[in-house]
Amino acid sequence: MRSGAHFDVAVVGAGAAGMMAAAVAGQRGLRVVLIDHATRLAEKIRISGGGRCNFTNLGASPAQFVSRNPDFCRSALRGYGPADFLDLLRTHGVAWHEKHRGQLFCDDSSESIIEVLRRECAVGQVAWRMPCAVQSVAREADGFVLQTDGGAIRAAQLVLATGGTAIPQLGATDFSLRVARRFGLKIVEPRPALVPLTFDAAQWQPYAALSGVALEVRLSHESAPADGAAGRPARTGGKRRQVGRTEFLEDLLFTHRGLSGPGILQISSFWRPGDPLHIDLAPGQNLAEALLEAKSGSRQTLLTALSALWPRRLAEAWLATEFPAGAPHSSPGAAPAVPAGRMVAGDSAAHRAARASDSARAPQSVPTSPRLADLPDRQLRALAERIQGWTVWPTGTAGYKKAEVMSGGVDTDELDQRSLQAHRCPGLHVVGEAVDVTGWLGGYNFQWAWASGVACGRSLKAGSRP
Q1: From CA 423, how far away is CA 414, in angstroms rounded?
Q2: pLDDT beyond 90 at 120
Q3: Is 429:456 a contact under the CB 8 Å cutoff?
Q4: Residue 322's pLDDT band (boundaries 50, 70, 90)?
Q5: Rounded (10°) CA dihedral 448, 452, 453, 454
Q6: Given a cut of 90, is residue 340 above it in pLDDT?
Q7: Are 235 and 69 in contact (CB under 8 A)?
Q8: Which end of the chain is more exposed for a tag (fewer CB within 10 A), N or C?
Q9: How would you class 350 by CB atoms within 10 Å of its CB: exposed for 0-12, middle for 13-18, buried for 19 or more?
């Protein structure tokens, strides 16, 4: 007789998707074991939403997810949407509120969500192995054998639910991706997503002192026809996704190393190294017209006008690049000495020279602001165009330590969209963040965790008994 505990299902990863899959399967009468290497349960849920867990979004639909196959998540989301999760919370008496644009948070704390999932697993009589690391996974004729710290575990079906590599300080690993590769599944190259963007230090020098300044902006990104490390075109229903423009109207935050805030986190899921971003720093306004109107019969300075639009520190820094100390204020059509409307990136000799020139010209103090009346109309229009069409070239991201999620993962071509089962390895399922489905900021990734976990849990079957 073979040694080790026997189960219908082994779920590796006791996070949002893993606990949901285990609970649903257990409540259907399957013998389920839930395995996790962590000493503390569901740390990513615990810290999310500032400790109150942004657990879903009322507007969740396939449109808010990034994937090589944007339609892949449709079936799972249709089967288990935000209203279904709210019904579950009501059953457990968890109070919640809407904070912003459909984002739902617990009134109390994230612990409420963890406790709901724990109770649901208890109802399904899920067995726990935690903390317990899985050393290896092998395929047998009637299922899988997992060698763990607590001995061998055999199961007819295996669910990979360990998530991605974001926030490694909480114990995140690439376990699911390694096992998926072991069984021949293709992987879309992982990368940090919902993450701050960084710039070359010399390039960013004129703006580094603005760390902490925040304002609402409109960010846009032009998507390339090839999406993903392999250069394969993204698909929609089997067709190539055409080049398109992605926009977000959200807050932007300046940091010492670059840009952050909700808007940047959103656009980072679409950005690729070498891509520019376009930022409208005065969204919803005709800035040129406003400046020309303010100029008429006024002794107002440009600094005063921009400070009414932005935090004063930003207005001062912007004018320091537009009008460096000693430069003439009113030469018609004059371009700024430091090109505020473009930021040079790259590492060619020309780019290095441009950055050195920019750094040398960066003022050491705030220049005297010209009066609007002293500036030609053409120069004000050009200034407005630069402000509403600021183009920047990030050189990287803040990495997995600062990313909220991992983008990429197990290629959706490898999985059945209704069950999350691998086509080429029956009995193997992958759920949650380990799949190449990445939601926008605002509760969408948790909704994918719930939906994919439920879809998987509903599809699992009782295995043959030992």
Answers
A1: 6
A2: yes
A3: yes
A4: confident
A5: 110
A6: no
A7: yes
A8: N
A9: exposed
Mean pLDDT score across all residues of the chain: 88
What percentage of the chain's residues is helix, strand, coil (to nearest 5)? 35, 25, 40
Q: What is the mean pLDDT of residues 245-252?
A: 96
Q: Indicate the helix (H) or strand (E) that contains 288.
A: helix 287-295
pLDDT of 466: 36
Closest Cα partner for 178 from 434, 451, 465, 461? 434
pLDDT value of residue 321: 87
Q: Are 383 and 305 in contact (CB under 8 A)?
A: no
Q: What is the DSSP letter of 149?
A: T
Bridge-based pairing state of the strands 197-198 and 239-240: unpaired
Count the alpha carbons within 13 Å of 86 in the hemisphere toward its beta carbon: 14
Closest CA to 303 of 293, 288, 313, 289: 313
Radius of gyration of the chain (CA): 26
- pLDDT of 452 > 60? The answer is yes
Report phi then psi at 439, rounded to 5. Answer: -85, 160
And the tokens for 163? 């998530």
Answer yes or no: are the C-beta atoms of 203 and 343 closer than 8 Å: yes
Mean pLDDT along residues 35-45:
97
How would you class 58 by CB atoms within 10 Å of its CB: exposed for 0-12, middle for 13-18, buried for 19 or more? middle
Q: What is the DSSP string of 332-378?
A: TTPPPSS-TTB---S-SHHHHHHHHHHHHH--SSPPPPPBGGGS-HH
**pTM score of the predicted model:** 0.88
Catalogue the E-assigned strands of 18-172.
32-35, 54-57, 65-66, 96-100, 103-106, 127-129, 134-140, 143-148, 151-160
- Structural contact between residues 163 and 71, judged by C-beta atoms closer than 8 angstroms: no
Shortest CA distance to 129 belongs to which of 297, 46, 12?
A: 12
Residue indicated by tokens 């230090």: 201
